[in-house]
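Sequence, please.
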């Protein structure tokens, strides 16, 4: 599939639009990162598919006991009435 796109200036950068059909063919969405290179005078755009780290429930809950203990130890600082010019 060949598409014609015009290069324009936006601020100090040269910008060209990529039609949604090409994005779909590349399996990328707006905001995705692409690697740009030039080979034999042709611009090549390759999507960078970064793997988002998926956490297990155990990993997400790691440290929750220590945080509960810390909250219990500092509860005195969150309770009580103002003693000076604090905003209540």
């Amino acid at each position: 599939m060949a598409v014609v796109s015009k290069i324009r200036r936006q601020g100090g950068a040269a910008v060209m639009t990529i039609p949604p059909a090409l994005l779909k063919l590349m399996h990328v969405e707006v905001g995705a990162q692409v690697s740009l290179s030039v080979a034999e005078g042709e611009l090549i755009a390759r999507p960078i598919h970064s793997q988002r780290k998926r956490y297990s429930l155990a990993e997400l809950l790691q440290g929750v006991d220590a945080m509960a203990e810390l909250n219990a130890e500092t509860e005195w600082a969150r309770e009580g009435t103002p003693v000076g010019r604090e905003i209540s």
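Strands lie at 8-10, 13-15, 34-39, 42-47.
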